[in-house]
């Protein structure tokens, strides 16, 4: 068989983009329906029985008459209960394999309740959930009539955001291939002849003399008592500001004050409410029984159980928000040019860091292979992976 098994591909490359998955799923569904039309069933479809390469998708184990063991969660409930496999049980196994192929995790089992799927860029989430819920129904009669109908239901859930046929290949080629040299020609000599415009001179109007200010008859200077009360109000405001600043400075914790460290005397009742300031020591004189004073670096940490300590601790524990995400792009075969939103970023395998959260259009171009494009969503603080198996250009 060409390529690797789907089990190995999922282990090495992770889940596939839905644009790459749908053509391969249609090939498998048509193969199973063709076998069902001749009376054959697979009975044991599993990621080990599907082989994928850049050009082909193949299914093994059809028509071999093999007695497959029960493989949960791929085996249908009726097969696990002892009933023989049929077309409906093959559809159940195909839906379980497709769920793992698309989301990178196994389905929990039969859909006794609506299947929960995560949002995918450019995909109707509700339509996708309904397709998996019906194909994974516990009763065979509630599933789709054929595997192809299940494949068509998944394809109908895709919302065409930017079809591959409408992709501007000139933008991709300009971003991947070097631009041709531009011929530089000598600039032509340009002669500018001066032009003259005649106009009549204008005479400015004579300036009017500025009259000196004189008080009107209704003007009267403020009384001495009013001037005195206004001055007292200004002095009172200044005194209040000085007293408030001094009180706030003395009430601040030691760790937030600059200058030499002062000794604080705490009341004997053990509370942290009242604090009495002790005058700073006189330079060159040290009180007996006290250690030598060391200069403050301004980096002291507030300790204790007071309000200042709790405020400092809450500020230090505040987490720093991450405002960017990481996008990992890979391809098989490697070496494909990566174009993100029309800008070349390098070749696969490639890791693009510090991307702003949002939706990005990723295109992969490699000589001899078909152009591949998909849409990914980058989430802040997370790693988003985009991988594809390129198809050989016919």
Write a structural description.
The chain has 394 residues and is an alpha+beta fold. Among the domains are: 4-159, Transferase(Phosphotransferase) domain 1 (Transferase(Phosphotransferase), domain 1, Orthogonal Bundle), CATH 1.10.510.10; 325-389, Immunoglobulin-like (Sandwich), CATH 2.60.40.1120. The chain contains 9 helices and 12 strands. It has helices at residues 6-13, 18-37, 77-80, 87-103, 125-135, 147-156, 169-176, 224-251, 307-316; strands at residues 4-5, 50-52, 57-59, 264-265, 276-277, 325-332, 337-340, 343-347, 350-355, 358-365, 372-378, 383-389. The strands form 4 sheets. A 4-stranded antiparallel sheet has the order 8-7-10-11, covered by helices on one side. The protein has a 3-stranded antiparallel sheet with strand order 1-2-3. The protein has a 3-stranded mixed sheet with strand order 9-6-12, with no helix packed on it. Strand 2 and strand 3 form a beta hairpin. Helix 2 (18-37) runs antiparallel to helix 6 (147-156) and helix 5 runs antiparallel to helix 6.
Summed up:
This protein is of the alpha+beta class and 394 residues long. Among the domains are: 4-159, Transferase(Phosphotransferase), domain 1 (Orthogonal Bundle); 325-389, Carboxypeptidase-like, regulatory domain (Immunoglobulin-like, Sandwich), CATH 2.60.40.1120.
How do the strands and helices of this protein lay out in sequence?
Elements: E1 4-5, H1 6-13, H2 18-37, E2 50-52, E3 57-59, H3 77-80, H4 87-103, H5 125-135, H6 147-156, H7 169-176, H8 224-251, E4 264-265, E5 276-277, H9 307-316, E6 325-332, E7 337-340, E8 343-347, E9 350-355, E10 358-365, E11 372-378, E12 383-389
Parallel strand pairs: 6-12
Antiparallel strand pairs: 1-2, 2-3, 4-5, 6-9, 7-8, 7-10, 10-11
Helix pairs in contact: 2-4, 2-6, 5-6
